Backbone:
Protein backbone atom coordinates (compact mmCIF):
# COMPACT_ATOMS: atom_id res chain seq x y z
CA UNK A 1 0.00 0.00 0.00
CA UNK A 2 1.24 3.49 -0.89
CA UNK A 3 0.06 6.79 0.59
CA UNK A 4 -0.20 9.64 -1.93
CA UNK A 5 0.86 13.07 -0.64
CA UNK A 6 -0.79 16.31 -1.76
CA UNK A 7 2.08 17.46 -3.95
CA UNK A 8 1.47 14.62 -6.42
CA UNK A 9 -2.03 15.63 -7.61
CA UNK A 10 -1.07 19.32 -7.37
CA UNK A 11 1.87 18.81 -9.73
CA UNK A 12 -0.38 16.92 -12.14
CA UNK A 13 -3.09 19.60 -12.33
CA UNK A 14 -0.78 22.55 -11.83
CA UNK A 15 1.25 24.64 -14.23
CA UNK A 16 4.32 23.35 -15.98
CA UNK A 17 6.88 22.14 -13.45
CA UNK A 18 9.83 19.71 -13.56
CA UNK A 19 7.97 17.34 -11.20
CA UNK A 20 4.78 17.24 -13.30
CA UNK A 21 5.98 14.53 -15.68
CA UNK A 22 7.67 12.63 -12.87
CA UNK A 23 4.44 12.62 -10.81
CA UNK A 24 2.55 11.21 -13.78
CA UNK A 25 5.24 8.59 -14.38
CA UNK A 26 5.32 7.46 -10.74
CA UNK A 27 1.54 7.16 -10.61
CA UNK A 28 1.41 5.22 -13.86
CA UNK A 29 4.05 2.82 -12.56
CA UNK A 30 2.19 2.27 -9.29
CA UNK A 31 -1.03 1.62 -11.19
CA UNK A 32 0.67 -0.76 -13.63
CA UNK A 33 2.22 -2.59 -10.66
CA UNK A 34 -1.30 -2.88 -9.19
CA UNK A 35 -0.31 -1.12 -5.99
CA UNK A 36 -3.09 -0.19 -3.57
CA UNK A 37 -3.10 3.63 -3.43
CA UNK A 38 -4.54 5.56 -0.50
CA UNK A 39 -4.43 9.07 0.84
CA UNK A 40 -5.58 10.75 4.02
CA UNK A 41 -8.05 13.53 4.75
CA UNK A 42 -5.20 15.94 5.49
CA UNK A 43 -4.15 15.72 1.83
CA UNK A 44 -7.57 16.97 0.76
CA UNK A 45 -7.29 19.78 3.32
CA UNK A 46 -3.84 20.69 1.95
CA UNK A 47 -5.26 20.98 -1.56
CA UNK A 48 -8.04 23.24 -0.27
CA UNK A 49 -5.57 25.37 1.68
CA UNK A 50 -3.02 25.74 -1.11
CA UNK A 51 -5.38 26.64 -3.91
CA UNK A 52 -7.42 28.97 -1.72
CA UNK A 53 -4.28 30.76 -0.51
CA UNK A 54 -3.09 31.43 -4.08
CA UNK A 55 -6.60 32.29 -5.29
CA UNK A 56 -6.79 29.30 -7.65
CA UNK A 57 -10.13 27.95 -6.48
CA UNK A 58 -10.84 26.72 -10.01
CA UNK A 59 -8.09 24.12 -9.53
CA UNK A 60 -9.54 22.59 -6.36
CA UNK A 61 -12.09 20.38 -8.13
CA UNK A 62 -9.66 19.00 -10.74
CA UNK A 63 -7.14 18.18 -7.99
CA UNK A 64 -9.84 16.44 -5.91
CA UNK A 65 -11.11 14.60 -9.00
CA UNK A 66 -7.72 13.21 -9.96
CA UNK A 67 -6.80 12.23 -6.43
CA UNK A 68 -10.12 10.57 -5.64
CA UNK A 69 -10.05 8.70 -8.96
CA UNK A 70 -6.61 7.28 -8.13
CA UNK A 71 -7.04 6.14 -4.55
CA UNK A 72 -8.83 3.14 -3.13
CA UNK A 73 -9.49 4.92 0.17
CA UNK A 74 -9.22 8.23 1.99
CA UNK A 75 -8.02 7.48 5.51
CA UNK A 76 -9.43 9.45 8.43
CA UNK A 77 -7.52 11.89 10.58
CA UNK A 78 -8.96 11.73 14.08
CA UNK A 79 -7.92 12.69 17.61
CA UNK A 80 -5.69 9.62 17.95
CA UNK A 81 -3.94 10.52 14.70
CA UNK A 82 -3.30 14.11 15.76
CA UNK A 83 -2.01 13.08 19.20
CA UNK A 84 0.40 10.67 17.49
CA UNK A 85 1.40 13.41 15.01
CA UNK A 86 2.25 15.67 17.96
CA UNK A 87 4.63 13.03 19.30
CA UNK A 88 6.16 12.59 15.86
CA UNK A 89 6.70 16.29 15.22
CA UNK A 90 8.36 16.67 18.63
CA UNK A 91 10.75 13.83 17.80
CA UNK A 92 11.53 14.70 14.18
CA UNK A 93 12.32 18.41 13.75
CA UNK A 94 12.75 17.99 9.96
CA UNK A 95 9.06 17.13 9.58
CA UNK A 96 6.33 19.69 9.14
CA UNK A 97 3.13 19.27 11.14
CA UNK A 98 1.33 18.12 7.98
CA UNK A 99 3.98 15.52 7.25
CA UNK A 100 3.73 14.31 10.85
CA UNK A 101 -0.01 13.78 10.32
CA UNK A 102 0.71 11.73 7.20
CA UNK A 103 3.30 9.69 9.07
CA UNK A 104 0.87 9.08 11.96
CA UNK A 105 -1.77 7.86 9.48
CA UNK A 106 0.82 5.62 7.85
CA UNK A 107 1.82 4.13 11.20
CA UNK A 108 -1.81 3.54 12.19
CA UNK A 109 -2.47 1.63 8.96
CA UNK A 110 0.83 -0.20 8.56
CA UNK A 111 1.84 1.78 5.48
CA UNK A 112 5.58 2.02 4.84
CA UNK A 113 5.68 3.77 1.45
CA UNK A 114 4.71 7.28 0.45
CA UNK A 115 4.54 8.86 -2.99
CA UNK A 116 5.79 12.36 -2.28
CA UNK A 117 8.27 14.93 -3.47
CA UNK A 118 8.80 16.08 0.12
CA UNK A 119 12.32 15.14 1.25
CA UNK A 120 11.29 15.48 4.89
CA UNK A 121 10.31 11.80 4.72
CA UNK A 122 13.83 10.74 3.75
CA UNK A 123 15.76 8.93 6.44
CA UNK A 124 12.74 8.04 8.59
CA UNK A 125 13.09 4.49 9.88
CA UNK A 126 10.71 2.11 8.16
CA UNK A 127 9.47 4.65 5.59
CA UNK A 128 10.32 4.60 1.91
CA UNK A 129 9.63 7.70 -0.17
CA UNK A 130 8.93 6.63 -3.72
CA UNK A 131 10.85 8.80 -6.16
Residues:
Amino acid sequence: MILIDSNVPMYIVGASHPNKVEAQRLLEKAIMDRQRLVTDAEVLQEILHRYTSINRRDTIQPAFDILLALVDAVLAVDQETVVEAKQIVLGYPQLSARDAVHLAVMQQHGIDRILSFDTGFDGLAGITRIT
